[in-house]
């Protein structure tokens, strides 16, 4: 998903710059600022968590999103609080967006050293509401295609009423980091002879066969992009 919404994507450095907010205080060796690594973590996820401050208190909401080059697009109802705040705030709404994949359960000999293998990405920045009609349409297409590639061309586009009821916010990827854990349990040397199993239980994502709605005409087949696995 590397196509820019407007113009040509300029060449980017291989890594994002580090900032005080992107350098973790714990297990800093697990952090990465590699652009491709961050993009892969974002692109594999369906849901992100959007954090912001409302009336002096933190709020975190799950929502769909899509990456287009160096931009994240998030969508919701025009009546939702964060979408309204991005339209009212000047110069925008400070936010934090996170994505996490759990790849394995790490079981150690001691309860203290149980853990998970994971890949996560954190994006800090200021979100702005998308008002340009062309950018908004392209962003909504990207949101649909992020869930199922090719689906936006195989469904009715949003009409004027639906576009008016939908808000999209834009968050540039400037202050970004990834963090991962891999490998087995890190037991203490004195625990190695304890009679407990230790290791990793891998987790994987999979898809079952599509279930067609009862009201779909009999001559409409399951699309090829779903038969081959989304």
In short:
This protein is α+β, with helices and mostly antiparallel strands and 230 residues long. Helices cover 19% and strands 33% of the residues.
SSE map:
Blueprint: E1 31-32, H1 35-44, E2 47-54, E3 57-68, E4 71-77, H2 81-88, E5 93-107, E6 115-129, H3 133-147, H4 160-165, E7 166-172, E8 175-181, E9 199-202, H5 224-227
Antiparallel strand pairs: 1-8, 2-3, 2-5, 3-4, 4-7, 5-6, 5-9, 6-7, 6-8
What structural category characterises the helix and strand content? Answer: alpha+beta
Number of strands: 9
Beta-strand percent range: 25-35%
Number of domains: 1
- The CATH superfamily label reads Electron Transport, Fmn-binding Protein, Chain A
CATH class label? Mainly Beta
Q: Residue-averaged pLDDT, rounded?
A: 88
State the major sheet: 6 strands, antiparallel, barrel
Low-confidence runs of at least 5 consecutive residues: 1-8
User: Main sheet: which strands, in order across?
Assistant: 2-3-4-7-6-5
The helix tally amounts to: 5
* Gap between N and C termini: 15 Å
Q: Which short descriptors sum up this protein?
A:
230 residues; alpha+beta; Pnp Oxidase, Chain A; 6-stranded antiparallel beta barrel; globular; disordered N terminus
How would you characterize the overall build of this protein?
The chain has one domain: Electron Transport, Fmn-binding Protein, Chain A (Pnp Oxidase, Chain A, Roll), CATH 2.30.110.10. It is built from 5 helices and 9 strands. The model is unreliable at 1-8 (pLDDT under 50). The chain is an alpha+beta fold and 230 residues long. It has a 6-stranded antiparallel barrel with strand order 2-3-4-7-6-5. It has helices at residues 35-44, 81-88, 133-147, 160-165, 224-227, and strands at residues 31-32, 47-54, 57-68, 71-77, 93-107, 115-129, 166-172, 175-181, 199-202.
């Amino acid at each position: 998903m590397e196509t820019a919404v407007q113009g040509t994507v300029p060449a980017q450095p291989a890594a994002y710059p580090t900032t005080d907010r992107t350098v973790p205080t714990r297990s800093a060796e697990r952090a990465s600022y590699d652009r491709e690594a961050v993009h892969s973590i974002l692109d594999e996820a369906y849901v992100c968590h959007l954090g912001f401050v409302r009336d002096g208190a933190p709020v975190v909401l799950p929502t769909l999103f899509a990456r287009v080059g160096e931009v994240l697009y998030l969508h919701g109802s025009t009546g939702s609080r964060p979408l309204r705040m991005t339209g009212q705030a000047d110069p925008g709404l400070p936010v934090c967006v996170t994505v996490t994949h759990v790849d394995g359960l790490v079981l150690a000999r001691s309860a203290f050293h149980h853990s998970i293998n994971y890949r996560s990405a954190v994006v800090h920045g200021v979100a702005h509401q998308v008002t340009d009609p062309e950018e908004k349409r392209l962003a909504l297409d990207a949101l649909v295609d992020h869930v199922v590639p090719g689906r936006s061309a195989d469904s009715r586009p949003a009409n004027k009423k639906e576009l008016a009821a939908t808000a999209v916010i834009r968050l540039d990827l400037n202050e970004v980091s990834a963090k991962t854990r891999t490998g087995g349990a890190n037991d203490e040397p004195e625990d190695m002879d304890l009679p407990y199993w230790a290791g990793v239980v891998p987790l994987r994502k999979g898809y079952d066969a599509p279930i067609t709605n009862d009201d779909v005409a009999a001559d409409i087949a399951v699309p090829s992009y779903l038969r081959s696995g989304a």
